[in-house]
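Pilot study result, target chain (90 residues):
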Amino acid sequence: MTQFFLILGVGMCVLVLFCLYRATYGPNVLNRAAGISAIGTKTLIILLLMGVIYDRIDMFVDISMVYALLNFIGTVVLAKYLETSGEASC
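Predicted structure:
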């Protein structure tokens, strides 16, 4: 069963690379913000898979909750910045 979660983790890492490409070369700021948010979400899943693999799910759930909260706050701050600066309208 550990092999299954390990393969899932590697697959999620590959998906993070696609999101990283979108965040780096996105056509506009909103696509880059969506790419960064997607990277945060996939990292959260990778953390939970690591918890299952290492049999320390309780510790990794706490870490992933904090990471999800920071990801959410970062997304809200970026959205607020884009709203006030007017860069999101292009």
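One observation from the pilot: The mean pLDDT is 90. A full batch analysis is planned for the follow-on phase.
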